[in-house]
Amino acid sequence: MAKSLFIRCSEETQALAHALAENENRSLTKQIIHMIHEEADRKGISLSKKEVKLGLQSLAETKSQVS
Question: Coil, helix or strand for 42?
């Protein structure tokens, strides 16, 4: 599910963000997301993805563990 992120900043910061996005041929939102991911990569930060099991698969595994 997509999450929202609201950023409060000065007009100058907003103008810089728009200029960066335009320079990279991205929307402002895509540029901010790109910069976040780029910075995380640069700093070696990653999130491990948890395996999500839904519906019958999860129920079947729970049942087999109990048996």
Answer: helix
